[in-house]
């Protein structure tokens, strides 16, 4: 099958590697508004060729949008306008606004809303890696509004990429990702800013940084081009979880201020229950 | 050299492995108030033998305290009372209170205050691993108050373990670790509590958890036995950094509330500067 990938960065490029490896794609066409990314994607062998969107779209059975969610919002309606037999998937991190936008489109059925729970803090075609999606979770949202054959193509892709498939509605998806993905990025950005700020007065501060620090701060390397649109789309959920997180930090601070170490101990014990989730 | 390790958990056990491997230790004696840990440490081959502290101390050239910092505070003065030629090191995560406590002890010179910037979120002898310290940073604090031969033994150990050596005073150490280690643990505990709390109303929330979440939350598995004494010892610094971190989160929240996405973008760009620190 000929597949067009719009956005040949970390996610689009890694998808290209896996789609080729799993023999889902016979030809991969890259589309990107950054010409340098297309050149690099070809050099890296991620895509076979590149061409203008319209042309690529006409030749493809599957078109995957792997661009920031504000880009999906802009492009998806135009693609649906032109869709005949093509299946269009996105892989964006928010879903409610996108699905709301196209819900009454006459070709809505050609679209499958997808979100692979995989990524790294890097971006661009050079960040593309094999096996990024292996054994990770793929969320398909509101599939009841997608055509049967479109869902089958998406499910087959999930299956061949050896991903775990989860069905969800968009509302649930955006709530859950706020809690297990979006907030992690905000805390990481805030922690980086906290420490970078302090570095100005205490220059040697990073000399002692080790694995624990790196672990909690690595997401702060993530691209604002990707993340600002996510926070914008999922603003209400992100504000809710941010409120709760600030509240938890303030509670821990109060315990420390009051030197209530017994309660602090118990709070850590409650937090330790995260062991049941993480290996 | 015969070395006694007090506390045969993650750090003490991992030290035992490396001290033996690097032929620094000929015999390793384990001391632990948890008998099961001693049995397990022997089974795992971490220690050669175990015996009561007094007996072990008398036979050793080097005694390493690898227990929570409140334990160091309790034991160190007693060990110094008995010290003749022994060198006593601790590997605790805070230094000011400990050094303050023993500063006028007649045998103060036998003690070297050390802190290896290495660890994992696990604890106990089964968490001990080879190479935990390889290429990590070891901080030695206020070495000018330690005897020359004691510092030499500590430096030789750092060298043979292939660690990077940093000298600091205790005040600097406690400030810096608050920023690059202690706060990471607090944000992780608070994030775990935030999400665990939400799970009660939205059961499937962890289905979508992936690498980013795991990265920011893994420290929340850390033991309260180790961490409450650290927060207690380093309370003022931890409160300062916690204040600043909450302030950063509140600023990001305000930008989102005001839908000031340009400033939000710039804040993320500033946070991205953490790239210069992390590989």
From TrEMBL, chains A, B:
<dbReference type="InterPro" id="IPR008927">
    <property type="entry name" value="6-PGluconate_DH-like_C_sf"/>
</dbReference>
<dbReference type="InterPro" id="IPR046826">
    <property type="entry name" value="PDH_N"/>
</dbReference>
<protein>
    <submittedName>
        <fullName>Prephenate dehydrogenase</fullName>
    </submittedName>
</protein>
<dbReference type="Pfam" id="PF02153">
    <property type="entry name" value="PDH_N"/>
</dbReference>
<dbReference type="InterPro" id="IPR046825">
    <property type="entry name" value="PDH_C"/>
</dbReference>
<dbReference type="GO" id="GO:0004665">
    <property type="term" value="F:prephenate dehydrogenase (NADP+) activity"/>
</dbReference>
<dbReference type="Pfam" id="PF20463">
    <property type="entry name" value="PDH_C"/>
</dbReference>
<dbReference type="InterPro" id="IPR036291">
    <property type="entry name" value="NAD(P)-bd_dom_sf"/>
</dbReference>
<keyword id="KW-0560">Oxidoreductase</keyword>
<feature type="domain" description="Prephenate/arogenate dehydrogenase">
    <location>
        <begin position="1"/>
        <end position="279"/>
    </location>
</feature>
<dbReference type="GO" id="GO:0006571">
    <property type="term" value="P:tyrosine biosynthetic process"/>
</dbReference>
<dbReference type="GO" id="GO:0070403">
    <property type="term" value="F:NAD+ binding"/>
</dbReference>
<dbReference type="InterPro" id="IPR050812">
    <property type="entry name" value="Preph/Arog_dehydrog"/>
</dbReference>
<dbReference type="GO" id="GO:0008977">
    <property type="term" value="F:prephenate dehydrogenase (NAD+) activity"/>
</dbReference>
<dbReference type="InterPro" id="IPR003099">
    <property type="entry name" value="Prephen_DH"/>
</dbReference>
């Amino acid at each position: 099958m000929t597949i067009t990938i719009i956005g040949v960065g970390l996610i689009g490029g890694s998808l290209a590697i896996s789609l080729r490896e799993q023999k889902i794609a016979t030809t991969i066409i890259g589309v990107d508004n950054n010409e340098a990314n297309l050149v690099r994607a070809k050099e890296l062998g991620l895509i076979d060729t590149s061409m203008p969107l319209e042309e690529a779209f006409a030749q493809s059975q599957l078109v995957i949008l792997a661009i920031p969610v504000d880009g999906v919002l802009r492009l998806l309606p135009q693609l649906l306008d032109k869709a005949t037999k093509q299946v269009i998937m996105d892989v964006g991190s928010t879903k409610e606004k996108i699905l709301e936008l196209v819900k009454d489109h006459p070709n809505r059925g050609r679209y499958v809303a997808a979100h692979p729970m995989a990524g790294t803090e890097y971006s661009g075609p050079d960040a593309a890696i094999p096996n990024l999606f292996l054994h990770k979770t793929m969320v398909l949202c509101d599939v009841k509004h997608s055509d049967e054959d479109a869902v089958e193509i998406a499910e087959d892709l999930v299956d061949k990429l050896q991903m775990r498939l989860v069905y969800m509605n968009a509302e649930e998806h955006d709530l859950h990702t706020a809690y297990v993905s979006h907030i992690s990025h905000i805390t990481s950005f805030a922690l980086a800013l906290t420490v970078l700020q302090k570095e100005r007065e205490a220059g040697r501060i990073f000399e002692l940084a080790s694995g624990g620090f790196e672990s909690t701060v690595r997401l702060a390397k993530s691209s604002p081009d990707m993340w600002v649109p996510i926070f914008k789309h999922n603003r209400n959920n992100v504000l809710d979880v941010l409120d709760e997180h600030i509240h938890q930090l303030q509670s821990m601070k109060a315990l420390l201020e009051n030197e209530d170490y017994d309660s602090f101990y118990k709070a850590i014990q409650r937090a330790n229950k995260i062991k049941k989730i993480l290996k």
